[in-house]
Amino acid sequence: MEPNSASYVPGSCPTRPEPEETGLEFLQFRDEIQRLMTVPPENASSFRALLELPATQAMQLLHSSPHSAAGGGDEHKRHSSSSFTNGNLTFPSNKALIERAAKFSVFAAAAEISPETSSVPSNSSANSDKVKTEPAETDSNPGSSNKTQTQKLAKRKERQKKGKESAKKSKNESREDAEKLPYVHVRARRGQATDSHSLAERISGTALVLDEIINHVQSLQRQVELLSMRLAAVNPRIDFNFDSVFATEGGPLIDGNIPSMVSPLMWPENPFTENRQNFQQQWNFDAVHQPLWGREEENHTFITPENSLFSYDSSANSASLHSNQLKMEL
Amino acid sequence: MRHPSSLKQEFLKKWILGLQRCGFSSKKSTSIMERKKAIKLSADLAMASTRNGTACWSRALIANASRDHESKILAEQILGPESQSLKKASSTMPPVICSRRIRSKKILKRSCSSQVRRVRKIALPQKVLSANSVAKRLVQKRTNILKSLVPGGEYMDDISLIEETLDYIAYLRAQVDVMRFVASATEVVNRNSD
């Protein structure tokens, strides 16, 4: 069983679910914010003020110029490229963040899953693409990190478009990005556990987890069906020859001809064969099962070779345990 | 949670036992569908009986198997004489528990709902509220699907449903591993003997 660890591996191309990607973005944004924090107070205060504004007021403030935000998307790229050498990144990236927040607060206004909002995530993630590539450029990293970031963002964009809750997810992520930047890998901000937005995020996160669980259970049940069909096709009768199965497979297993999926089970197979030997010993004394075993012995002469084949060194504890279990059942 | 390899041993033991029991009486059933049903049923019952009725899903599985007409006889055959107590427990428990639980849940809901409305009424914009309700509806839909998948899931509340699901997944994995192992082994045997 593989636990789904949320550990963040820098620079890796994620094929993992959302929380890790947002963690990556958290760190990126944290770096950016730290750079912003060292800025002259005027810029920082405007950004912080934006953070502290409740959603509705921020939306009203920024909603007045949504189209200018879209238009400014091109400008600030040029700004940042020009200011790259100056090192004065703060003003354009600040503006970019404000525009992003504006875009995402526009989402908050239309939070229902509607077709029009699905177009907006593409805009926003396009914006976020630009915003993210600029801080990457400002780093002294080569373009490879840039590429990986855009790759990750493209993946996120795709996933957003594919998912049913695309609008909500992008809104949630953006809200996390825009508002929870000082924190790394925190789902709910302090004092906002019951806030409407964080509640909605957590609920949709729960929905995703439930989705995974459902898919897993369905796939396992389907596998059981297929395997039982396969077994039924292979064997001509119901009580198929377990003796021959366990006796003759010992050779191939030791030789290593069996496909790899069987070899991991070689270790548990040792106790299996032990059980079988115990079966035979126990059932020889049991009147109910004697006719059964009598029939089996008529058909196959594998029992004595089986005993000699499987002389595995097993601990006495496990052997006594199995025999105890059998005694309890019979 | 039990160790997976011991789980597999137990499961295999009981499965072999069950298969031999159900093939004991009738030697005529050669159709593939019947064989498949018998194999699957014995595997399921073996799974469920290894749990010894300590998990709700195992009881529900046995109860469903014994309730279903076509598999009832087979199931009784497979389970055999030692499982009388198990069958009794599985038949009586789920309906009683579910009705009791549902009644208590209704009472609780009625008492709480009157209070909850007065506690917090922040003036949220309408669209934010609907976002919450949409998300809740999604979760509710998925929970219903999960309830339909896990045997005996309809009678449980969310938290115990998740626990039962985890348990059920562990057992399903063990079952799939063992079945795959046996299937490939028999295929190898057949290939070698041909």
Automatic annotation (TrEMBL), chain A:
Q: Which InterPro entries match?
A: bHLH_ZIP_TF
Instruction: Give me the ranges of the annotated region Disordered.
Output: 1-20, 61-89, 112-184
Source species = Quercus suber
Q: Which UniProt keywords apply?
A: Nucleus
* Protein origin, superkingdom: Eukaryota
> Which residue intervals are annotated with compositional bias (Polar residues) in the record?
138-152
Quote the biased-composition stretches of kind Basic residues, using this chain's numbering. 153-162
| Cellular compartments annotated | Nucleus
Indicate, by first and last residue, each region the UniProt record lists as having compositional bias (Basic and acidic residues).
Answer: 163-182
Please identify the protein, giving its name as recorded.
Answer: Transcription factor bhlh48
Gene Ontology MF annotations = DNA-binding transcription factor activity
Q: What is its main location?
A: nucleus
Q: Does the keyword Nucleus apply?
A: yes
What Gene Ontology terms describe where this protein resides (cellular component)?
A: nucleus
**Stretches with biased composition (Low complexity):** 112-128
Automatic annotation (TrEMBL), chain B:
InterPro entries per UniProt: IBH1-like (IPR044660), IBH1_N (IPR059002)
Keywords, A to Z? Transcription, Transcription regulation
Please provide the Gene Ontology terms (biological process) for this protein.
regulation of DNA-templated transcription
Q: Which Pfam families match?
A: IBH1_N
Q: Which residues form the IBH1-like N-terminal domain?
A: 5-68
Superkingdom of origin: Eukaryota
User: What protein name does the entry list?
Assistant: Transcription factor ibh1-like 1
